Amino acid sequence: MRVVYGGTFDPIHHGHLRLAIELRERLGVPAVSLVPSHIPPHRGAPGATSADRLALLHRAVADEPGLVVDDRELSRGGASYTADTLRQLRRELGAQEPLVMVLGSDAFAGFESWRDWQAIAGLAHVVVIPRPGGELEPQSVPARLLETSPARTLDALWAAPAGGFIWLELPLLDISATAIREHLQQGRSPRYLLPDAVLAEIRERGLYGVHPACPRNTN
Ligand code: ATP
After folding, report:
1. Ligand 1 pocket, mutate which of 3, 4, 8 (most atoms under 8 A from CB)
2. Which of 131, 168, 172, 174 to mutate to test the pocket of ligand 1 (most atoms within 8 A of CB)?
């Protein structure tokens, strides 16, 4: 089974990392792949370049073998459509291996506006994590996909390569990348919202309005 967790990761933070670890344990897989988007089609331009966001991700998972970075959306270039990413993964995995994509319910609420969304059930299972502010309209397409899913439990995802839509409650940290960017822009400390190594890299690269760290003054 391959488990992929996509996002802008602008920047990666402990909310994302805890979710990936919880999911890895709940699914019983050796690793979860974090897939940063290059050009996210459904939101404004990220606050940091793809190369910078990727470098932050690598710093975040450097000592955690259960989390790996998959940079295929950057290598591919152009707008990062999830259906294209899942098609590419499906070609690599073959027809039978289960492929699972995970996302928050805030992201899933807009599923119908994604390019080629109808193709996704044929390519992967979708695990949706409820997030505050990410409630689904009762009769909406995303809600109907969850209601009519052929797979109802995480165990059932192992029995088929794709096609399940599962609503999975997980403990969540109330952290957003938006809040972290605001802290940095306002000169406030975002410490403990994200790994220290990621914060150090943000300072070294001078991202999100932070003045680049002076190499002679690193404490
Ligand atoms: P922003 O504040 O810039 O919108 P974000 O923190 O919501 O960013 P994204 O990169 O947009 O992060 O999110 C990637 C995925 O992670 C989405 O599926 C989103 O629902 C989920 N996610 C974001 N923050 C958390 C969190 N604190 N806990 C669990 N999942 C999260």
Report:
1. 8
2. 131
pLDDT of 213 reads: 64
What's the CA gap between 199 and 152, in Å, rounded? Answer: 39
Query: Separation of 172 CA from ligand 1 center, angstroms?
Result: 11
Whether residue 216 is contained in a domain is answered as: no
DSSP 202: H
- pLDDT digit string, tens, across residues 15-34: 999 999 999 999 999 999 99
CATH number at residue 125: 3.40.50.620
In this predicted structure, the answer to whether residue 216 has a pLDDT above a threshold of 80 is: no
Looking only at the bridges linking them, the beta strands covering 125-129 and 99-104 are: parallel
Structure confidence at residue 43 (pLDDT)? 77
Does some domain include residue 210? no
- Mean pLDDT, residues 82-104 taken together: 97
- In ligand 1, the atom with minimum distance to the C-alpha of 176 is 6
Count the alpha carbons within 13 Å of 104 in the hemisphere toward its beta carbon: 19
**Closest protein CA for atom 28 of ligand 1:** 15
Residue 101 within a domain: yes
Residue ranges of E strands in 23-87 = 32-36, 67-69
- Evaluate: CB of 178 within 6 angstroms of ligand 1: yes
DSSP string, 86-125: HHHHHHHH-SSS-EEEEEEHHHHTTGGGSTTHHHHTTT-E
